[in-house]
Amino acid sequence: MSRKYGFPSSLQLGLYLIGCVQCERVRGYQSTGNISVVKEIVDKLLKGYDVRLRPDFGGNPVTVGMSIHISSIDQISEVNMDYTITMYFQQSWRDKRLAYSDLPLNLTLDNRVADQLWLPDTYFLNDKKSFLHGVTVKNRMIRLHPDGTVLYGLRITTTAACMMDLRRYPLDQQNCTLEIESYGYTVDDIVFFWQGNNSAVTGMEMLELPQFTIIEQRLVTREVVFTTGSYLRLSLSFRIKRNIGYFILQTYMPSILITILSWVSFWINYDASAARVALGVTTVLTMTTINTHLRETLPKIPYVKAIDVYLMGCFVFVFLALLEYAFVNYIFFGRGPRQQKKQSERLSKANNERQRYEEKRMREQVDPYGNILLSTLEMNNELLATDMMSSVGDSRNSVLSFEGSGIQFRKQLASRDGFGHHPTLDRHVPLTHHAAVRNRANCRLRRRSSKLKLKIPDLADVSTIDKWSRIIFPITFGFFNLIYWLYYVN
């Protein structure tokens, strides 16, 4: 029975001893006393190594895997149309010239060894400015695996171009990319791929940007063709949405409040020119300042942005509020007096012509005794004019009766006959010189009363303009906001 179970025990013992020896060997390699062994391996690998030739030169293309860990996105600039990103960029490929079997360990070497090895000529197509971090030493890593796999890592910061469409700014979404490609090797020499597929890029979900929210990221691989050949291009595409909170507090709310402030002038009396003009000019200049400050933070692009539409709309409302008072002022102080002057000139001219005509008739109708003869129709016209002159005479109706060459007033007792004549008037009656003078005085009084009426402005019309403005401006501005937000948000 002991022989039956002795062989397995010996085999187990032998395997155990071999394992112990191997472990001791590994520990020996890791100890400082065996650094010479590692040095010999590295020297052997680098001896005769030609950095000018890619792995498997003349054979199959080298496959290079890419992986990225995003450390931060420092800045996204609309003015320069770019963004700045800091990342850990790793590349992995296999170089059979660097394979070793004497040591079952991965060798992490000094970053200066990378200058003695072949490296892919990787570059970023949309790069504007990049640098390799060098504190405290160059932030790059080179690691060798026994099968010849090389892992090359860098910590770099790059500023990459990101073409933005700002038509909906600041209610916009932008798509930025980081494009990776070989500068000189075509697909016949080198092939890039995302190592780990969709998990090749990490850290994006942990980023918190002050003005943006990352809503999507995609990894794209495509082949592009140039005159020098075909190249594989890797693209990291991420979609960002702008946070509107900052712009509501800094731009939209001040613009709304300033627009509403401009409507206060509708409640100020129209004859308070200093207050209304000062308020209107101040609001216009404030809107101009906000618009100018915003333009300084954006590129000079040829199309209209969403924020431009809103600020221009607010500016128009503020400017119209100022023009409203200019219109009221013109109606009250400008157009009214001019019309009054023109109408007064017309009335004065008409009265002068009438006076000349009356004097001419009076000269023609003088009897031998120096009395003026008036027909019944002329007397009726005089009586009608006297009745309508309410501002200078008695408001009660009166008629003239004649006795001899004199004239006196009395209450009207009988109406005119069917032909419009007074029954007490003859065809021609004598009128003394004093009565003619009294008629001319009455004409002058009528002219003065007409001028007095013209000098009183129509205050109801001016107040009506302000009353309608108090209603029309807020309603129109509300419709403007409704249409604006429905269009640009959706």
UniProtKB/TrEMBL annotation:
This is Gamma-aminobutyric acid type A receptor subunit theta. The gene is GABRQ. One of its GO terms (cellular component) is postsynaptic membrane. Residues 1-23 form the signal peptide. InterPro entries: GABAA/Glycine_rcpt, GABAAb_rcpt, Neur_chan_lig-bd, Neur_chan_lig-bd_sf, Neur_channel, Neuro-gated_channel_TM_sf, Neuro_actylchol_rec, Neurotrans-gated_channel_TM. Residues 251-485 form the Neurotransmitter-gated ion-channel transmembrane domain. Residues 39-243 form the Neurotransmitter-gated ion-channel ligand-binding domain. GO terms for molecular function: chloride channel activity; extracellular ligand-gated monoatomic ion channel activity; GABA-A receptor activity. Keywords: Cell membrane, Chloride, Chloride channel, Disulfide bond, Glycoprotein, Ion channel, Ion transport, Ligand-gated ion channel, Membrane, Postsynaptic cell membrane, Receptor, Signal, Synapse, Transmembrane, Transmembrane helix, Transport. It is a multi-pass membrane protein. The keyword Transmembrane helix applies. PANTHER family: NEUROTRANSMITTER GATED ION CHANNEL (PTHR18945). It is found in: Postsynaptic cell membrane. The chain crosses the membrane at residues 244-266, 273-290, 310-333, 471-488. It comes from the Eukaryota. Its main location: membrane. It comes from Terrapene triunguis (Three-toed box turtle). It holds the Pfam family Neur_chan_LBD. GO terms for biological process: chemical synaptic transmission. CDD domains: LGIC_TM_GABAAR_beta. Belongs to the ligand-gated ion channel (TC 1.A.9) family.
